[in-house]
Amino acid sequence: MKNKALRRFRLELPLHLLLIPGVLVTLVYAYGPMFGIVMAFQKFSPALGFLHSKWVGLKNFKYVFNLPDFSQVLWNTFYISLLKVALGIVVPLVLALLLNEAAKNWFKRLVQTSIFLPFFLSWTVLGGVIFELFSLKGPINSLISGLGAQPIMFLGSNTWFPAIIVGSDVWKGMGYNMIIFLAAIVGINMNLYEAAEVDGAGKWKQLIHVTLPGIAPIVILLSTLSIGGILNAGFDQILILYNPTVYESADVIDTFVYRLGIFDQQYAPAAAIGLFKSAVSLGLVSLSYYLAYKFSNYRIF
Amino acid sequence: MVYKQSIGRKLFVVVNGFVLTAVMLLGVLPFVHLLAISLSSNSAAMAAEVKLWPVGFTLEAYNYLAQKSEFLRSLGISAERVALGTAVNMLLVVITAYPLSKSNAQFKYRTAYVWFFAVTMFFGGGLIPTYIVVKETGLLNTIWALILPGALSVWNMVMLLNFFRNVPKDMEEAAVIDGASHWALLWKVYLPVSLPAIATIVLFTVVGHWNSWFDGILYMNSPEKYPLQSYLSTLVTSINKQAISVEDLKRLENVSEKTLRTAQIFLGALPIMLVYPFLQRYFIKGITVGSVKE
Amino acid sequence: MKIKLYGGLTTAMILMSSVLVTACSDNSGKQAAAPAASQQQPAAAKTPEKADPFGKFAQPVTVTQVLGFRPPEDPKTPKGITPEQNGYLKQLKDMLNIDVKYMWTVPTEQYEQKFSLAVASGDLPDLMVVDQKMFEKLYEQGMLADITDAYKTYASPTLKKYVEGDGGFALGMFTRDGKIYGLPSYEDPYMSTQIMWIRTDWLKNLGLEPPKTIDELEKVAEAFVKNDPDKNGKADTYGLALQKKLIFWGFDARGLFNSMGAYPTAWLKGSDGKLMAGEIQPETKNVLAKLQSWYQKGILDKEWALKDDQKAVEDIVAGKVGISFGEWWYPNWPLNLNKDKDPNAEWKPFPLPSFDGKPGKSLVNKIRLNKVVVVNKKAKHPEAVIKMASFYNEMERSKYKDINKAENGWVYNWYEPRIYNPNNFENLFQAVNEAVANKKDKVESEKDETVIQGADEVFKAAKDYLAGDKKAWGLYFSRAADDGGWGLTRKIRDQKLVTFNEYYGPATPTQVEKGASLDKLMDETFTKIIMGSAPIDEFDKYVSSWKKLGGDDITKEINDWYAKNAK
Questions:
Q1: B140 to chain C: nearest residue by CA?
Q2: Domain B65-292 falls in which CATH fold?
Q3: Which of residues 236-265 of C touch A (CB under 8 A)?
Q4: What structural domains does chain C harbor?
Q5: C177: left (phi > 0), else alpha (psi -120 to 50), else beta?
Q6: Chain C residue numbers touching B69 (CB-CB < 8 A)
Q7: Is the distance from CB of A32 to CB of C12 less than 8 angstroms?
Q8: Coil, strand or helix: which one is C130?
């Protein structure tokens, strides 16, 4: 019995060894700074540091949760990022599948590169472009008035603003996930397609029975990881595009915390919010992990 | 492979072509817009008159940049960072993902390890503690401060782990029977089979290193050590207070060169766009799996 | 599996605690060093060395500092030069035997953040340049040196004249219990006076007079919307420039609010002698009602609430708008860009219009503070910092003109501490105008050891502009022209047509806690009222929520402060 365990350990030893560098780096640079979490429970003052700042228990959490509008802000954060997560998976997936069917290689490359381009631009730069696009005199409204309808003030409308936030975010990031999906599609064993063809499956059937099951693990993985970011609705983007008329539909946790810091660098409430977000993310991801394991016996990671 | 093309299929190909072209334009047009601004006169740019074609064409911004030493110097630092950073990141991602891609039967503690890493995706210490750790480990003001703290991207690692699981089991078993060690298995079987995934992660890593600017400003003690994006971020000025001093004004007057700023943003994105097509050949169907199977 | 995870965590804990230990020992070091430093300082004052502001230290003295910097402004500056190679520092070493060591340098935009990190990680330099907020923090934590003796003994007469140029009001803000903890650098508070910039070529095109009252302003603005003031045959202009932040640094609504006697975000003295918040007064409601009607008439851009400062500036440059409230400096940016685009464009400033028979009075803060120079309690030679400040002003004098040049690698905006003459602006105006009026070739840029900064530059612009060079308009018209930006502002100053913001203390505890929520409430309510998506009576609801959500507490805190500090 003991012998068996020893043998098993010797067999697995190389695997442990391979993990050493990663574990070290993570310990030092990811776990190391976590002592900062105590800040969430302190009246933190930089001059006193983490050891000498006053302990205040849950006061920072109470302060943040009791701020007027906090529930509104939480809800905005939640629904904006939920839409971002969902569309951020579906749109790139569809594009990857379409692109995979494109006939010419040069065309494939060209499209792939172009789709990735917006990813390189910061929201500061894109903010200007989006404003022009959706302004009353912009191309989209010209089209609308050309069709005989009333122009719409997109960025000042509580109905449209969240849609623009979600849409532009999906647009900016779609190249990223699309490439992952493409890599997954390319990785599917060609034999499976050949077998399917022999069985008389058309393109559509091949898609349903070979391609989609082949990339399902990656799709599930990306969805799970994105759900972890559910309380990050996109700080830079919203800060640059929003305005007081759409606060009620677009003020999210991060912009809210940012404004809190304007009067005074309030490290502690920000840390409390951060901890709250982390806990929610970890909870959601653990839940998805557990569900995936329970129902399909698949470990996401 | 020749398919019998039905009418539906033909129609699909045409529609698909249109959709993809539209998506492509959506990606390209902002860049055309930026390029046009950078080639326009400053007053036209400031008046937001430039759309997709330069107004008052001039190469002034580029001429000015060509003689600016900061731009070239920070470009060099970025190149160094990308080369070094990508090498370190990829090595760590690969050697970490490999053991964790094993099943629990093959590697007893994998799940514990995975969670050890995964937790760091959600919990962090925040800016100040991270800075203190970087400082205490003596990395401040060295290029390692930009590389080591993020040396293992857990996100990428988890992704690669999933790709590694797709390595056909028969290939692995064949290699093991031939007496291959884990090390050999990783390099001779896993990596070649996972080339598309590796290429994807290389791309993300390169882009990540290229685009990040905040750590440069945080950890470097003087601007001579800034990578390109950190340097570029110093050109964007914003005044966030009510009282504006005579010195703030000088700043406004100087940085208001919108064309110059745009030219730099454009040039800043250019090298990475050139890397991209190079990596793309790994995404073309058929190369990988076919070439590994002997 | 559980055990393994636990093991990992324990290691992490050990690692954390080791970091905490270092942080701790760092801190105890601070406590230990503090008394040493305070002993050091009187000792330094007592040294036999004469109290000469420009006396050379016998032994080299090192002063550490940090720098928020921008690229050198002068194109003649040698390429590739670094802050360490600054000509000022070489001269400082030669003249005073002081070595400056930069712990870090960072672009101005990121200075505040990097400085906070330095505070948090306990790495503070000897010499620091901070804002009022940071001053309060450092003072509270006992991290600042008392520089009273060093200042009294070693500050040059010129430096003293600058620091106390307003009769000691500014210095008093940074003096606690009779001890000086910081030297302020500030500008003439009247430089924040709001004036009204108008496209006079548009007025001429339409045969209109410059408006003197709000009603006339409304008529002019309406004409700018409807009567095609730029004569291009298109209805593509609007009246008043505005951006989404109503109270900001430019192209905002402060000027209009002030014209109608409303002062949102300021604290004014009420009839009962107590301070009251401007944003909840009935005058503010009047302005909002006015703006609401202007929005309906198209005087404001339909999309003003979506536009940031950049976008508002774009409209000015593009010639889409003809009126903007703001400060004296507009001609040098961005009005000059508008003139570049359209050579016919003419902008002139006018006093705030009157309302209800009362002249418009701009809000002026009691102080226009740029920065505070402070010394670390641990610094060994606080007097070196005072000497460095005196040194800067000395180097500006004409006798150093031959060496103090950009081409020799002297970069003034990299040198700290720079404490400027608060009256520089007025001196400059007078000197340049005197030189122009008497047709001199040179402006007198130094009088009684007081240097007028920028005099040569502005004089050259004045000469060039008067000789027909339109490019020089911005500098000339903002700073030197009698009917220009500062020319008008100083007339308003002399007539005292301003209202003072009575509060100049730090943010109160309730402001820190509730200020962001109250600001949001204000922005949201005001914007909605102006856009017409909320009725004007929404304002009354706003006032009562404001009071309930912390406004009353803030008012009390502000008045407590006022009772203590009012003079």
A1: C104
A2: MetI-like fold (1.10.3720)
A3: 244
A4: 26-187+369-414 (3.40.190.10), 195-351+507-565 (3.40.190.10), 423-499 (no CATH)
A5: left
A6: 79-80
A7: yes
A8: strand
Contact criterion met (CB below 8 Å) for A228 and B121: yes
* CB atoms B233 and C109 under 8 Å: yes
The tally of domains found in chain A comes to: 2
pLDDT tens track of chain C, all 567 residues? 333 333 333 333 333 333 333 333 333 333 333 333 334 444 444 444 557 899 999 999 999 999 988 878 788 889 878 899 999 999 999 999 999 999 999 988 788 888 988 887 888 999 999 999 899 989 988 899 999 999 999 999 999 999 999 999 999 999 999 999 999 999 999 999 999 999 999 999 999 999 999 999 999 999 999 999 999 999 999 999 999 999 999 999 999 999 999 999 999 999 999 999 999 999 999 999 999 999 999 999 999 999 998 889 999 999 999 999 999 999 998 999 999 999 999 999 999 999 999 999 999 999 999 999 999 999 999 999 999 999 999 999 988 989 999 999 999 989 999 999 999 999 999 999 999 999 999 998 888 788 998 899 999 999 999 999 999 999 999 999 999 999 999 999 999 999 999 999 999 999 988 998 999 999 999 999 999 999 999 999 999 999 999 999 999 999 999 999 876
A72 and A36 housed in the same domain: no
Q: Which two tokens stand for residue A23?
A: 């574990």
- CA B132 – CA A33 distance, rounded (Å): 8
ipTM: 0.89
As given in the structure block, the two tokens for residue C78 are 């040698």
- Asked if the structure places residue A151 within a domain, the reply is yes
**B contacts of A185 (beta carbons < 8 Å):** 285
Is the same domain home to A259 and A288?
yes
* Residues A197 and A95 grouped into a single domain: yes
A90 and A134 fall within a common domain: yes
Q: What are phi and psi of C363, to 5 degrees?
A: -80, 135
Q: To the nearest whole angstrom, how far is the Cα of C121 from the nearest Cα of chain B?
A: 6
| CA-wise closest residue to C169 among C422, C379, C456, C418 | C422
Chain B and chain C share a number of CB contacts under 8 A equal to 125
Are the Cβ atoms of C15 and A47 closer than 8 angstroms?
no
Q: Domain residues for A251?
A: 68-296
Global pTM?
0.88
Contacts of B154 in chain A (CB under 8 A): 26
Given a contact cutoff of 8 angstroms between Cβ atoms, the answer to whether C174 and C301 are in contact is no
The reply to whether A39 and A170 lie within a common domain is no
Q: Domain coordinates of chain B in residue numbers?
A: 1-58, 65-292
From B48, B109, B254, residue closest to C73, measured CB to CB: B254
Cβ–Cβ contact C523 with A under 8 A: yes
Q: Is B66 an 8 Å CB contact of chain C? A: no
Are C520 and A259 in contact (CB < 8 Å)? yes
**Burial environment of residue C400 by CB neighbours within 10 A (0 to 12, 13 to 18, 19 or more):** middle
Q: Which of residues 47-86 of A touch C (CB under 8 A)?
A: 47-52, 63, 67-69
Do A76 and A214 share a domain, yes or no? yes
Do A53 and A98 sit in the same domain of this protein?
no
Amino acid symbol at B195: L
Q: Is C368 helix (H, G, I), strand (E, B) or coil?
A: strand
Contact residues on chain A for C521, CB-CB shorter than 8 A: 68
Taking only residues 208 to 237 of chain B, the set having a beta carbon closer than 8 angstroms to any beta carbon of chain C reads 217-218, 220-224, 233-234, 236-237
Q: Chains that contact C by 3+ CB pairs under 8 Å? A: A, B
If you write DSSP's letter for every residue of C432-482 in order, what string do you get?
HHHHHHTT-SS---EETTEE-TTHHHHHHHHHHHHTT-GGGHHHHHHHT-T
User: In this complex, which of A18, A25, A112 lies closest to B98 when CB atoms are compared?
Assistant: A18
- Domain with residue A242: its CATH number is 1.10.3720.10
A122 and A24 inside one domain: no
